[in-house]
Amino acid sequence: MSQRTPSQPKRPLIALTMGDAAGIGPEIIAGSWPETVIHDWCRPFVVGHPEIMRRAVALWQNRVEVVEIRSAAEADPHPGRIPCLPCCRDDVLDVAPGRIDPRAGQAAFDAVVAAGGLAMAGEVDAVTTAPLQKKALREAGHLHPGHTELLAEICGVSDVEHFAMMLYLAPSDDLPLGPSGLAVVHVTLHTAMADALAQLSEQAVLGKARLADRFMTQIMGGQPRIGVCAVNPHAGEDGLFGDEERRIIAPAIARGRAEGLRLEGPVSSDSVFVQARDGRFDAVVAMYHDQGHIALKLLGMHRAVNVTLGLPIIRTSVAHGTAMDIAWTRRAETSGMIEAVRVASQLAGGRCAKR
């Protein structure tokens, strides 16, 4: 591990939640842990069950020691040591790999609640989450659709216009994005398509555009250009295929422009992401989950990072799920976790707590 001089800023302390123990969460943490660059960026530790993490380390055979700690302040990580703050019941040890199990759902829930609490108390600078299994979460008695909504509740943010899921893809040599990458913010999220249209509103569209502007301004150091998706084919074709563009989306764009936001649209979703890929837009506001997810994951599935906007804490995550079909076979891709930690470190660096 590289040595830091006294003039270098203190690395942020980041809590990594274990995710669903039956899925790939523990193994992508264990598999990425020896990467020394992670430890140059931050001081990570795991919130979960130490024995699950030891099993994940054994799977990778990477000679990493898992050390149980009693508080975030005790974390002393390096590429050969995983500090783990216990927060789960021992019944999670009986969960079978690749199986949906309420015990795994409860353990994943407990890890997120514990890490979120640490962040709210200022004991960590950011949280990076491994994927949880939504059905296992529900079978454990927790009705949150996913991490985003659960963390919003933990943080006391109840107005859906004030928080959002964003997928962020940083620029790279092999992808012709703009110099600051591409962000996609979703107006509706974990909901059935039949309900998504009913949840669209002028205020919701404008609220997500504001969040996209705020995030990309932080990343870019300047104001972003934001493309706002239509929801109907051909942007509604002047009302022929639906009137949401004229009735909801266009008025939201007009209000945003009046505030000084650099918004363009409504743009048909079959062209807005091509334009964004080619650098015309720094961010896109998508109307529903798959409209944004499919496009960004096609551009960079394993480099995309999930960032929760609008909360008083920093939270990033991988952009994929629990991958139950390959869990605990050492076939999981670790690059998404590495990138999620990198983005969390970048965001936390400017406000790293003095410890």
Terminal CA distance: 21 Å
Instruction: Estimate what percentage of residues fall within beta strands.
Output: 15-25%
Shape: globular
The CATH C-level class name of the largest domain: Alpha Beta
Order of helices and strands: EHHEHEEHEHHEEHHEHEHEHEEH
Assign the CATH architecture of the largest domain: 3-Layer(aba) Sandwich
Please tell me the overall pLDDT. Answer: 91
How many separate structural domains?
2
Number of strands: 12
| Whole-angstrom Rg | 20 Å
Quaternary status? single chain
Count of discrete alpha- or pi-helical segments spanning 4 or more residues? 12
What fold name stands as the CATH topology of the largest domain? Isopropylmalate Dehydrogenase
Low-confidence stretches: 1-7
The major beta sheet can be summarized as: 12 strands, mixed
Helix content: 25-40%
Q: How do the strands of the widest beta sheet line up side by side?
A: 3-4-2-1-5-12-11-6-7-10-8-9
CATH level 4 superfamily of the largest domain? Isopropylmalate Dehydrogenase
Q: What structural class do you assign from the helix and strand content?
A: alpha/beta
